[in-house]
Specification:
about 300 residues; alpha/beta; four-stranded parallel β-sheet; 8 helices; 10 strands; globular; Cysteine synthase; EC 2.5.1.47; cysteine biosynthesis; cysteine synthase activity
């Protein structure tokens, strides 16, 4: 009888596809890594499984223990999926203004959801998670400080990009939230070729882009190492949403707002380069943003 995999075996090995129209007439190749193809729909499936599996392997947690995490959405959905697969109760803490689709996806996987106000934001969510842990209500995985977050990308995302481009990648672009994707991919890709340029994206002041942040110094993720990023680009909410809609309408890639920012940055780079191979992370799917109205025709 064949051995059938569980759903966690389907995480990773996502497609890398070429953009046909948005780059225009160029000698460059602009590629999109479609992380929405992961089982729970985002790039966060990788670190979610890694953080649980590695903690379990060390004996830090065992099935039945309650896990706690602060999230703006994608990590929470991914952790809810991974916790369901591995047998862990999960409490997620999230700012209230995030999309209904995200909230419903988390609870569909069986997670308990606690909301903080928009004013408290992710900083407040992170503070509450740590307070709950100190009261003995569960264990915080802490995606912002947990080395098993970038480890997932060092072990999987980076090697996939290197293999899929046959080592021809010259630039890697990713929006930065926890910064785990940028940190892990940078560590792997620069081992292969130190000349590969790592570009991180953050919102301009005043922009609200789900999943990425311009962190206050006190809340800067501990896994972040500025030396691993060659360039940080600011991206506006308007530009991210505009590129996100073009990505769907002109390339057939239905993705979220931070993915629009990542592609917008890749296109800006392409205008400055020749004969480059630019890989941008498309971190999730657009269907979890429909209730926000970002795809409405009048926008």
């Amino acid at each position: 009888m064949p051995e059938y995999p569980t759903v966690e075996a389907c995480i990773g090995n996502t497609p890398l596809v070429r953009l046909q129209r948005l780059p225009g007439n160029t000698s460059n190749t602009v590629l999109a890594k479609l992380e929405g193809n992961n089982p729970a729909g985002s790039v966060k499936d990788r670190p979610a499984l890694s953080m649980i599996a590695e903690a379990e392997a060390r004996g830090d947690i065992s099935p039945g223990d309650t896990l706690i995490e602060a999230t703006s959405g994608n990590t929470g959905i991914a952790l809810a999926m991974a916790a369901a697969v591995r047998g862990y109760p999960l409490t997620l803490i999230m700012p209230s203004h995030m999309s209904d689709e995200r909230k419903q996806a988390m609870t569909a996987y069986g997670a308990r959801l606690i909301e903080v106000s928009q004013e408290e934001g992710m900083e407040g969510a992170r503070d509450l998670a740590m307070a709950m842990q100190s009261r003995g209500e569960g264990r915080v995985l802490d995606q912002f400080a947990n080395p098993d977050n970038p480890l997932a990308h060092y072990r999987t995302t980076g090697p996939e990009i290197w293999s899929q481009t046959a080592g021809e990648v010259t630039h890697f672009v990713s929006s930065m939230g926890t910064t785990g994707t940028s940190m892990g991919c940078s560590a792997y890709l620069k081992e292969k070729n130190p000349d590969i340029q790592i570009v991180g994206l953050q919102p301009v002041e005043g922009s609200s882009i789900p999943g990425i942040r311009r962190w206050p110094e006190a809340y800067l993720p501990r896994i972040f190492d500025a030396s691993r990023v060659d360039q940080v680009m600011d991206i506006s909410q308007q530009e991210s949403e505009h590129t996100m809609r073009r990505l769907a309408a002109e390339e057939g890639i239905f993705a979220g707002v931070s993915s629009g920012g990542s592609i917008a940055a890749a296109l800006k780079l392409s205008q400055q380069l020749e004969n480059a191979t630019i890989v941008a992370i498309v971190c999730d799917r657009g269907d979890r943003y429909l209730s926000t109205g970002v795809f409405s025709p009048e926008r």
